[in-house]
């Protein structure tokens, strides 16, 4: 069944641009191919698409988006910003395991978009999508190689400024940093995916020390998929702990002695592929980690 979702907006303000597959090239879509990954039991996946026009429409027209109701539940369109507007499509959360693909039709019409007997020149456009639904059976429930018995396997870094490098040493991870900027500027990341259930309390635990006392910000994160539907795919789940430095970050002070740290948090949503992040900016003191683990609080 197809659903005609009305973006009851009249595009007389010059704002109904776009140009994707099939239609007039003055309207383009970003991304040009919608893609998403979801796991069984997770909340509905939201996919965002922006339509951008290279021309203004002065006629009173209406924009419509045609969805396959067996794949999507709804679409919300934000008011246009200049010649662009954003649509957020919500994927059904009861799709079977496998890959589903098709196209979403965008149309601009002089009349009701549901019938669209009088399409605007160039309309409609078809934007392809591909959604992969993965099984939630037998997913890892803890980080892999959190004890660094396999060297640095599975652990990555990023640095917005300064430099950062990893090495395995004596069964630990050594992280060398050169950073004087604030805490979110660089970090250590595990993005291999941990299956965490909404409403359940977990603990992120680790052993750590540094060559000189310093702070770090440990997190369990959304890991690239926007499962709380706020438009940002890297939200953090740990929001309380030893010392709050902002509503979404917990700072942990390290000493020169290897010590054990635990941060408890309750998952607000089910994320079957959550990640772990340590923000390591703000100091050039070398760090050592071991026994990084996420476990249910008994
Ligand atoms: Ca170890
Ligand atoms: Ca989010």
Describe, in plain words, how this protein is organized in 3D.
This protein has 298 residues and is mostly beta strands. It contains no helices and 20 strands. Strand 11 and strand 12 form a beta hairpin. The model is unreliable at 1-20 and 240-249 (pLDDT under 50). One calcium ion (CA) binds at residues 222, 226, 228, 230, 232-233, 235.
Strand order of the largest sheet: 10-13-19-15-17-16
One letter per element, helices H and strands E, the order comes to: EEEEEEEEEEEEEEEEEEEE
As a percent range, the share of helical residues equals under 10%
User: Percent of residues in beta strands?
Assistant: over 45%
What is the topology?
Elements: E1 2-10, E2 27-30, E3 34-39, E4 46-53, E5 62-68, E6 72-77, E7 84-91, E8 98-109, E9 125-134, E10 155-159, E11 163-169, E12 172-178, E13 186-196, E14 201-210, E15 214-221, E16 243-246, E17 249-254, E18 259-266, E19 271-279, E20 287-296
Parallel strand pairs: 3-9
Antiparallel strand pairs: 1-5, 2-4, 4-7, 5-8, 6-7, 8-9, 10-13, 11-12, 12-20, 13-19, 14-18, 14-20, 15-17, 15-19, 16-17
The chain binds calcium ion (2 copies).
One calcium ion binds at residues 147-148, 171-172, 290.
